[in-house]
Write a structure and sequence with these properties.
Elements: E1 4-8, H1 12-23, E2 27-31, E3 55-58, H2 64-74, H3 78-85, E4 87-88, E5 93-96, H4 98-110, E6 115-118, E7 129-132, H5 140-150, E8 155-161, E9 164-166, E10 176-177, E11 188-193, H6 195-207, H7 228-233, E12 260-266, E13 273-276, H8 285-292, E14 303-305, E15 308-314, H9 317-320, E16 333-335, H10 345-363, H11 376-384, H12 411-437
Parallel strand pairs: 1-2, 1-7, 2-6, 7-16
Antiparallel strand pairs: 3-5, 4-5, 8-15, 9-13, 9-14, 10-11, 11-12, 12-13
Helix pairs in contact: 1-10, 2-10, 2-12
């Protein structure tokens, strides 16, 4: 059997899978259709271009994303290694300079002698061992092919990305630096709104022109990427209790907490760009400029990127995949990334690790194995592949997915014990996988 795996898609999941296979001495053909064929959201041909945000979320082990990142480090994650190297200030979160991150990850993959990058669109699953990691923006041709092969329709939802402004265009006579409860120093810029300003902002968000939904696609918004317009329609105070909550923030000029606040998070290492945290939107571009200029401190903001809306595609994983991400119908095919129904950068990259390990084991004639359910990664995989699930929607990693502790605890103590248990289980699993395959420590 040829030691070759073809990976379709060079996003976070595809690059992670390629890295894991190269470590095991497996030859990889990594297909990426950009820049020959672009998507609605990408702007470059860099591998693993980040489009929605520059944040990989919390680093704390008591946060589910922080625990998952630490598990990935135990598995020698390339994505986390590069993210750590290109970190920008974001308090307790791992945020990166997105351009440097993508360029560095591209160079790392391009330098692997086992990996050949092929810049062309793949319209159907090729023969042999394959990892489908085309992400939420799978091309229409391949999407139609997958739908015919899977025997069921794809599920669709829309994903909206937040705007980015230049730091120098923010009026710091109005805005102030700080973080909630001073936990993260002054890494964030905060634009405060009084009650009348908040009410006017909500009115204009609701009245603004929106990008229309196409009639042949269903609008099934994922809670973690909910456009602000959808939140505002749920009630006038939804934004004030969501991305605009002022909890733990005090305006240093008044000593009081504003009624609402818009937070800006550093986007690049130089600190010249900031993104609007939680401000995914499907307003038209002219309306975004008009409505967001109503935010105190952003009256003359320079937008280097406005928010946009695009269709995300994911398969019915509970029906089609095993926890090893192996397609039940064809054991030589694996899926990874957001197309499996995981949500988020970290989750997508983590599934790439598993798909890489699983396909490598399959090539060797060994049974693919999934991480233990007591790990954050194992619990997430079992959620998205649970055959009992009838109404499947994308999911972020969270502590609610992990099995209960033998000792009942609450709050931070519960999360700390869950994290300790998870990391011990992941260490043991990583050692088992390494012993079973006997791969080299370095792909070079």
């Amino acid at each position: 059997m040829a030691r070759l795996v073809r990976i379709i898609g060079a996003g976070l999941a595809g690059c992670e899978a390629a890295w894991q296979l190269a470590r095991r001495g497996v030859t990889v053909e990594l297909f990426e259709m950009r820049p020959q064929r672009m998507t609605d959201a990408h702007t470059s041909g860099d591998l693993a271009e980040l489009v929605c945000s520059n944040s990989f979320r919390s680093l704390a082990l008591t946060a589910p994303s922080g625990l998952l990142k630490e598990e990935m480090r135990r598995l020698d994650s390339l994505v986390i290694r590069v993210a750590d190297a290109h970190r920008v200030p974001a308090g307790s979160a791992l945020a990166v300079d997105r351009d440097r991150f993508s360029r560095a990850l591209s160079r790392a993959i391009e330098s692997l002698p086992q990996v050949r990058i092929i810049r062309e669109e793949v319209t159907e699953i090729p023969p042999g061992a394959v990892i489908v990691a085309t992400g939420p923006l799978t091309s229409p041709s391949l999407s139609r092919h997958l739908a015919s092969r899977l025997g069921s329709d794809h599920l669709y939802f829309y994903d909206a990305i937040s705007p980015i402004v230049t730091a120098e265009s923010v009026d710091m006579a109005v805005a102030f630096k700080g973080s909630r409860y001073d936990l993260d120093g002054d890494d964030y810029i905060n634009c405060p709104l009084a009650r009348p300003e908040y009410d006017r902002f909500v009115d204009e968000v609701l009245a603004a022109d929106k990008v229309p939904t196409r009639s042949f696609e269903r609008f099934v918004p994922f809670e973690g990427c909910m456009p602000i317009e959808e939140m505002a329609q749920r009630g006038r105070e939804t934004l004030a209790f969501g991305p605009m909550k002022p909890a733990g923030l005090a305006d240093p000029r008044t000593g009081k907490s504003p009624y609402a606040v818009v937070q800006l998070r550093q986007e690049n290492r130089e600190g010249t760009l900031y993104n609007m945290v939680g401000f995914q939107t499907k307003m038209t571009y002219p309306e975004q400029k008009r409505v967001f200029s109503l935010i105190p401190g952003l009256e003359r903001a320079e937008f280097v990127r406005l928010g946009s809306l695009h269709r995300n595609t994911f398969i019915d994983s509970p029906r089609h995949l095993n926890p090893t991400l192996q397609w039940r119908q064809n054991p030589s095919v694996f899926f990874a990334g957001q197309i499996t129904g995981v949500e988020g950068y970290v989750e997508s990259a983590a599934t790439g690790i598993v798909a890489g390990i699983s396909s490598g084991r399959w090539l060797e004639g060994a049974a693919p194995v999934a991480p233990p359910q007591t790990t954050a990664l194992g619990a997430l995989l079992r959620y998205i592949t649970d055959t009992a699930r009838r109404s499947f929607q994308p999911m972020n990693v969270n502590f609610g997915l992990l099995p209960a502790l033998a000792t009942p605890l609450r709050g931070k103590a519960r999360k700390e014990l869950m994290a300790s248990r998870a990391l011990a289980a992941m260490e043991a699993w990583a050692l088992r996988v390494a012993a079973d395959t006997g791969f080299a420590d370095s792909p070079g």
